[in-house]
Amino acid sequence: MDIRLVKGSDYNAISPLINEWWGGRQMSDMLPKLFFVHFNETSYTAEINGEIVGFLIGFLSQSHSDEAYIHFVGVHPDYRKNNIGKKLYNEFFNVVKENGRNIVRCVTSPVNKVSIAYHIKMGFEIEEGNKEVDGVSVFANYDGPNQDRVLFAKKLD
Amino acid sequence: MDIRLVKGSDYNAISPLINEWWGGRQMSDMLPKLFFVHFNETSYTAEINGEIVGFLIGFLSQSHSDEAYIHFVGVHPDYRKNNIGKKLYNEFFNVVKENGRNIVRCVTSPVNKVSIAYHIKMGFEIEEGNKEVDGVSVFANYDGPNQDRVLFAKKLD
Fold this sequence. Notes:
Chains A, B: Residues 1-157 form the N-acetyltransferase domain. Chains A, B: This is N-acetyltransferase domain-containing protein. The structure is a homodimer. Chain A is of the alpha+beta class. Chain A has 2 domains: 1-56 and 72-99, Gcn5-related N-acetyltransferase (GNAT) (Aminopeptidase); 102-157, no CATH class. Chain A contains 4 helices and 9 strands, in the order βααβββαβαββββ. Chain A has helices at 11-21, 34-38, 84-98, 113-121, and strands at 2-5, 43-48, 51-60, 67-75, 103-108, 125-126, 131-133, 136-138, 150-155. In chain A, strands 1-2-3-4-5-9-6 form a 7-stranded mixed beta sheet, sandwiched between helices. A two-stranded antiparallel ribbon of chain A has the order 7-8. In chain A, β3 and β4 form a beta hairpin. The two termini of chain A are 26 Å apart. At the A-B interface, α1, α2 and β4 of A face α1, α2 and β4 of B.
């Protein structure tokens, strides 16, 4: 598997994969091309035999000088359980540390139990919100009305 | 009119305005909350009597150290022709210059003639693309299949 930085031209390959990998949910609007143009030294693709099987889109926070944020991570459904996600996250953690930052944040939905379990396994902690959903602390209406979110933070060593 | 930096809590006010101001088009997914959290010192709202009548969401490019990018600008339909957009752009141009950068980029659809005319009036130049639509140079399939885009750049003095 090859992990490399994304290029602007990857957008046209990755954008349609999003709706496909998320089981047809209309998700691709959440990842506009600008991330491939203006944040491409902190964003990665994983390829096997030239086929994109995973990607991670992240950036260094402009507002918080010790933080970085992971916006979107996707792994091809046929290639899960292959540590592709883990390798992408570790690549990102390394570039964050190289940039002198030590906090990585990301956000997920309370319904996404797989994502919650995955982030905990990857060493993220759940931030104390203002509501509980199925025993998990969430921020109510974080992403708009009825859009509660679980906020994660990981401190890098 | 008061222009101020956006806060995280503005997200819940601005997000529903997007679909409203864009005539019901489902646009709000293109502006996720992260812009209000991680790029809030280069993003602005305009208020009249405490009501949000405009906003500009922009950032300093992480990949291109002399560039900044405007992601989203909206003005309340009832308050157009009041130079609200112009004031928001100028505020952004100032913060870009304060950060030692001198190129501002943004992107629009070829169908959006009003936006094209507006950007030209604001001193943006159209970048030479690979196709022409109604006499305007565009980048074919820039934002995905059949999603041609006009790319603008403005050099700040």
